Amino acid sequence: VTPALMIVLAAAVAAWVLAPLLGSAGRGVFRRGLPADPHDARPVAKHDWAGPVLDGGATRQDASGEA
Amino acid sequence: VAALGRFGLLAALVLALYALVASWLGARTRRPELVTSAARAVWMTAALEALAAGVLATALLRRDYSFAYVVRQTSDAQATWYNLASFWGGMEGSLLLWALILSGYSLAVIRSLALERPRLLPGVVAVCAAVSAFFLFMLTRVASPFVAVPFPPADGRGMNPLLLNPWMAIHPPTLYLGFVGMTVPFALVVAALADGAVEEAGVLFARRWMLWAWYCLTMGLIFGAKWSYVVLGWGGYWAWDPVENAALMPWLVATAFLHSVMIQERRAMLGRWTVLLVILAFGLSIFGTFLTRSGVLSSIHSFTQSPLGAYFLGFLALAMLAAFGLVAWRWEALRTPSQLDAVVSRESAFLVNNVVFLTTAFAVFLGTVFPVVSEVLTGRRVNVGPPFFDHIISPLALLLLLLMGVGPLLAWRRASLASLRSSLHVPAAVGVLLGLGLLAAGMRAPGAVLAFALCGFVCGTIVLEFVRGIHVQQAHRAGGVAAALWTLVAGNRRRYGGYVVHLGILLIFAGITGSSVFSTQRVATLRPGDAAQVGPYRVRFDGLSQTTRHGALIVTAHLRALAGAHDLGPLDASRSLFLRSSDSTTDVALRSTAANDLYVILAGWTGEGEATLRLLVNPLVMWIWAGGVVLTAGAVIAMLPERRPAKLLIQEPAPAWIPEGP
Q1: d(CA B483, CA B582)
Q2: Among A26, A31, A42, beta carbon nearest to B201
């Protein structure tokens, strides 16, 4: 049983992994392609450490007298 | 069935190599279908590793002695739970667990990158696949868990008896989660460097992965300390063993990173520095594995020694060469624009903190490799013992503690000395009063008084931060203290989670200080009915008994602990002699309170029924374990995703690029 199982498994794995390369059906798995412009995928979010930024880089906590 | 396991690992190796090549080609030729195919290969690598792991776990649980690994790790007498834990009790199984965890991380990071940072995907897939391929190569060519035994024996040899402990069952997987977790930030940084999106892309995204890896590594270290404390029976929890040091070094570097990344995020500084820290943390995690596996240093972990060391060293050299080469290539692009505005500022506190962490890591590294270096240079192996580490590390740890207290009181950019002075009043008063109180109570160890006073100071700072935050919340909206605290923490989880983590570290620090400076011990040989005094406790020896269990002869000394007129109840200290392997383990008698631990080891006995006992009173050890719990709470708070949507720096979000997973 084991050799047959291994052959079937290998074939199934190879088919699934290589599917994207096999013609247009494979390309359909993308919602969008790789971004063409190197600048269009810059970080989208900046998580701040000490609360919302007010003016000049001070934070709400800063404004309240805290560090 | 072993063939199925071997097939799984071999096919996984082929797929990992394919993923490496396909993602690299996909990025170079900008063909997304190649990268999707590579991501699918990573999925399948994980599935095939899981298949191999399933085969091995089943063999261990069924005690299938046709596997050499099962013969070495299990026996008929060994409890089923430990048969499963023996999966990572030996070299081959622990490598398979490593590969499996890495695949889990790879899938998670692929999933999250496809949504948030698609440009980094090919690079991350390539790095994860390369590291996977290395481990799978080891598993298929050098240390296969599926080697068959031509003539299966009737019974196995069983695990090293020292590993038969619940803490040991949980310590390695937790530590591996931390060690392997360092691969993800490394992959992100390498991908960002390779891609050229170096400004913030890789490093800031790497922060949350590093935080998780850091947390797992911390808990792995604490679980290991607990195992050492209750099983090794030497009275302590940390011995500066080379393998303990090997886990401590990446922990120190990761801690430095978690602080420096805040400066990069807030002030766009230290770009190169943070990238180097991520690479160093990964390198040290592999170096730690090399130390554990190679046998170049004698260690309590010598049960995993093998000729694998050379492979790990080669892989480490290659990975570091590639990563540092990329850093050199992108050196100019990594330059961050901001400069330090003032000497007295939070940035400079973080900077000093980073220097101290790195100095500590370097001191630990030096002490750990010194025996090898001295042997190479002089032909004589000179071992560096705990006194070296204690003398070097203690002042650095005190300095870090001071910074932990001062840092939060300093403003970003520039702090005025006047505002610092006014902020320092309360915490400094707490620290000074605590120090004076301890001196008045008769504590005469200056180092310990200073350490506890600093703990009081830092605790004062943290409480002050919470109180100020609550006041600000209450000024903005009416409500009770609990509601204000909730809003405060929920609105800024990273900051206040960080403070709770600091509280956990404080508890651990106080526990280490108390137990290392004020531990008392004595050795006594007692006849039944005799008693010995140690610290505030009197321990009465009531006699010996002997039983056999799971192939071990267990000799138990029955004891009774008394504090003045109070009977604290019975205690048992025993020693197990494993008949087959002639190993022995110690089960200490332990009575823990918040103030101290009464810890009794059965050191020996005579035919006449006398027992030689080593009795210790270790103050504040429970604070170390409590610190782990508090630290967990803080880490959970800090790791929970922020509720409010993150602000957008650019108007157009990156296009989602989602390779379909199964």
Answers
A1: 61
A2: A42
CB B382 within 8 A of CB B429: no
Which value, to the nearest 10 degrees, does the dihedral of the CA atoms of residues B462, B361, B216, B102 take? 150
Question: Can you spell out the DSSP letters for A8-47?
Answer: HHHHHHHHHHHGGGSSHHHHTT-SS---SSTTTTS--EE-
Residue B260 bridge partners (DSSP): none
3-state secondary structure of B165: coil
Enter the ipTM. Answer: 0.75
Q: Please answer whether residues B587 and B599 qualify as being in contact, where contact means their C-beta atoms are separated by less than 8 angstroms.
A: no
Neighbours of B346 (CB within 10 A): 24
User: Residue B328 contacts by C-beta under 8 Å, 6 or more apart in sequence?
Assistant: none
Bridge partners of residue B612, in order along the sequence: B525, B604
Chain segment B255-308, per-residue pLDDT in tens: 999 999 888 877 777 778 899 999 999 999 999 888 877 666 665 555 555 678
Selected for mutation to probe chain A from B15, B25, B33, B115 (highest A CB count within 10 Å) is B33
Residues 393-432 of B with CB under 8 A from A: 408-413, 415, 419, 423
Whole-model pTM? 0.88
Strand partners, B605: B611
Question: What does the angle CA B514 – CA B516 – CA B517 come to, to the nearest 5 degrees?
Answer: 70
Judged by CB atoms closer than 8 Å, whether chains meet at B656 and A36 is answered as no
CA–CA gap between residue B580 and residue B584 (Å, rounded): 11
How many Cα atoms sit within 13 Å of B27 on the Cβ side? Answer: 23
Instruction: Give Cα B415 to chain centroid, integer Å.
Output: 34
- The amino acid that residue B94 corresponds to is S
Distance CA B293, CA B305 (A): 5
Hey, is the C-beta of B347 within 8 angstroms of any chain A C-beta?
no
The model's pLDDT over B95-125, given as tens digits with 9 standing for 90+, comes to 999 999 999 999 999 988 877 777 888 999 9
Q: Which of A38, A46, A50 sits opposite B495 (nearest CB)?
A: A50
Rounded to 5 degrees, what angle do the CA atoms B567, B570, B574 make?
145
Judge: B40–A47 Cβ closer than 8 Å, yes or no: no
Q: What is the pLDDT of residues B441-473, one digit of tens each?
A: 999 899 999 999 999 999 999 999 999 999 988
List of long-range contacts for B539-543, beta carbons under 8 Å, 24+ apart: B539/B571, B539/B598, B539/B600, B539/B613, B539/B615, B541/B611, B541/B613, B542/B570, B543/B609
Q: Are B248 and B363 in contact (CB under 8 A)?
A: no
Per DSSP, chain B holds a count of helices (H) and strands (E) of 19, 10
Contacts of B578 (CB under 8 A, 6+ apart): B158, B161, B551, B552, B584, B585
Query: Position of tokens 């379909």?
Result: B660
| A47, A59, A62: best to mutate for the B interface, most B CBs within 10 A | A47
Q: Does A24 touch chain B (CB under 8 A)?
A: no
Out of B30, B37, B201, name the one closest to residue A20 (CB).
B37
CA distance linking residue A67 with residue A61, whole number of Å: 7
- Chain B, residues 480-499, CB within 8 A of chain A, namely 491-492, 494-495
Instruction: Give the rounded distance of the alpha carbon of B74 from its chain centre.
Output: 27
Range name among A63-67, B366-370, B399-403 with the lowest pLDDT average: A63-67
Q: For B454, which DSSP code?
A: H
Q: Is A4 within 8 Å of chain B by CB?
A: no
Q: At what angle do helices B493-517 and B481-491 cross, to 10 degrees?
A: 100
**Residue B555, CA distances (Å) to B527, B542, B548, B601 in order:** 15, 13, 9, 12
Residue B639 three-state SS: helix
